[in-house]
Amino acid sequence: MRDGCTPARRLDWLERAVAAALVAFCLAAVVAAVRLGAAAGGGGADLLAELRERTERRVAAEREQIRPAWAAAVRGEAEAALGAFADNSQLHLLLAGVYRESGSAAPALREYRRAVELLRDYADRHSPQFVGPGLAIWLREVRPAVSGAALADLHYLERALAGGCS
Known about the structure:
Layout: H1 7-40, H2 44-74, H3 78-83, H4 89-102, H5 105-118, H6 132-142, H7 149-161
């Protein structure tokens, strides 16, 4: 019987979370493409076909990235499974959100910091991937409760969101 905490169970959730993030990204891209096509006065069908191709390639690439981690999780190698995603900014952002929702500020701060280190667009207010407004509010809320390494992560994130150097 599974207790819900086995590595395979975690990656099952993780795979679904990555798929959900990709679906959201694809929907946003389709809406943007349709708007661009309408603003350009046509050519929407070609634009949508190109977008579909790019999206299918990206989903295939994400699946290929997930496959080794999934195999490691099935073998019971949790560290190897998570290590396969060490440089995946989306994963770190998703994990940060999970920790944040569960009330675990220190791990959430660590994951947010890693996500921003891997993809500075999360902290760039001119990027469509900017996570600043909601994150800045949360950082102010958790500031009194953190110390040590978590406080260093909080300071890093505040500087990054303010456009400062890291």
